[in-house]
Each structure stands twice: as structure tokens, then as C-alpha cells.
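In this section we walk through a basic example: taking a raw amino acid sequence and producing a predicted 3D structure, encoded as C-alpha cells. The instruction is simple. Fold the sequence below.
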Amino acid sequence: MTEKVRCLIIGSGPAGYTAAIYASRANLSPVLYEGMQPGGQLTTTNEVENFPGYPQGITGPELMEDMKKQAERFGADIRFGMATKADLSSAPYKITIDGEKEIEADTLIISTGATAKYLGLPDETKYAGSGVSACATCDGFFYRKRKVAVVGGGDTACEEATYLAGLADKVFLIVRKPFLRASKIMQERVLSNPKIEVLFEHETLELTGEKVVQGANLVKRRGQADEEKLHIEIDGFFLAIGHKPNSDIFKPWIETDEVGYIKTVPGTPRTIVPGVFAAGDVADPHYRQAVTAAGSGCQAAIEAERYLSEKGI
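The resulting C-alpha cell sequence is shown next.
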């Protein structure tokens, strides 16, 4: 049986929950499906110190639970479930949940986020929140005057390494290839920074430490005759090998860039499909912060209310 709603929000996290708060207060009776990771990426972060309003900091799970409760307080219908299929060919838009239930929505807010790419080491899970991070801007503050490593060779990795060099005593940049893929200016910044040591042709074998990251075992020129093993002492291990936006099911209907980030009208959450909006990391390749995601969720809900009002729905 098909269910009809005025405003459907796909994905939780700061963008989805904020959209639900605003949509509820605008009497849009929003239904939100939390996805496979309720609360989004922030639920894997132990300490959040840069979200306004929490002078003593707060854990990621607590912040997301607060946002969820706030949305529910105003009447948002928050459900567990994952969008598995979309048909945005005409309004009302059709979204299939868990391969079974179909929802028809007059407006749709996509806040499905982006998933950080990892190397696939078991240690990345073991030390998640205890030295392993995919966001230097989020967690770099905790590594002031300490030693850290960044994995990657593109612009993002160089930006993260440069940012961390302003906080840490030492930054190792672990690059699998014998060169950096980053733009010329980013390469120059990294190579000229005395705090950054670039380890070309290195791969990470494992992380070491009892309860938190204390080091990493690397291999240089893996599988070659001159293969070398190396151990580095570090307190933090940052992944900077990219993110994958969770936008696949929407790609036949909306515009995305070459990576998969949803394209919106500049300065707005509007997509090329009327009544369909994108908020948070799924449409943000640049900032990927909780506060910017929350702001875009607010924008998306306001746009949804205006769209419905103009249509008289």
C-alpha cells in the first residue's frame, strides 16, 4: 500500500534532523527515514567541540540524539528504514523504502550524506574514534603538539596535512604513488612545510597501540625487490582518500558532479527537479561540517514550505 506525505526527508544527521525540525514547525508533517546509519557520520565522532551552543563540547551520538528529540518534539515522524529506489520523473515523487514500502511525496529532501573512503584495514574499525579519523577539521584540535599521519596524495590530503601542521608537531603524509596528485600550489605548500614529511611509495599495513593509536607499520614499494618496512610513532591517523556521496538511487533524475555530489542551484538547496532539495554532505564536497549541514537542512525545509505554498498543496 502506498503512503502519501507532503514532505519526505531521506537521511538523518545534522541536515536531515534540522530539516525535520523546520518542516515540523511549518506544519508540513514531515516523515524522515534515518537510513542505514541513524545520526549519520557524526555518530562515529567521540567529541564535537566546534558545534555552536555546546561550550563544553558534546559527543556526536548525544548531539544527534538531541536533534532527533527536538524534531520529534514538534511532530516529525522519524522512522528506521533505508531508501532503496527512487522515481522522480513526476510529482508526487515515489521513494521505495527497504525494497518494499512505497512513499509518494509532494516534496523530497535528500540528506543521505557521504561516506568516507577507508583503506579497508581491520584496525580502522578497531581504533575508530580512538585515533582514526576522516576529518582533520573536525578532530585535528585533539592532536595539538602531537604526531599524526595523513593518508592520500590529492588536494584533500594536502589540505588536511597543511591544516594539521598548524596544530601538530609532526605530520607524516603517506602517499602510495611516487608523486602527489594534488594541484601545483597544494604540492608546494606541503613540500615546503618543515612539519610535513612526505612518505612516497608507502602503504599502511597496520596500526598499533593498546586502546588508542600509538603507531603505524608501513611498507615501501610493496612487493618489489627493494621493499622496505617502516614503523612510525603517531597519535592520530587521518584518512583523506575521498568521500562517496550516497546519491546513487537519485542519479537518473538529478544532476551530480563526476564524484556523485548532487548539484544544486548556487546558494540554495534546489535541484533541477522542482520540489526536490538536497542538503548536507550529499551536496557539499567542500566543507562537510555539522554546522553547514544543519544550515542547509534549514534552507531545504524553508524551500519545501515555499514550494508547497506556491503550489497550494
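Looking at the output, two observations stand out. The first helix runs from residue 13 to 25. The chain has two domains: 3-115+243-311, 118-239. In the next section we compare this with other chains.
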